[in-house]
Amino acid sequence: MKRTIIQTVVIAAMVAILSSCVSTVSNTPPSGFVHLAEAVPDAILEIRYYSTYNFVGDRIDGYEQPTALLTVEAAKALKAVSDDVKKQGYRLKIFDAYRPQRAVTHFMNWAKDTGDIRMKAYFYPNLDKSVLFAQGYIAEKSGHSRGSTVDLTLFDMATEKEVDMGGTFDWFGKESHPDWCGNPETGEYTGEFAGDTPAKDGKINATQFRNRMILRQAMMRHGFKPLEEEWWHFTLKNEPYPDTYFTHSVK
Question: Which of 46, 73, 175, 230 is labelled catalytic?
Answer without folding.
Answer: 230
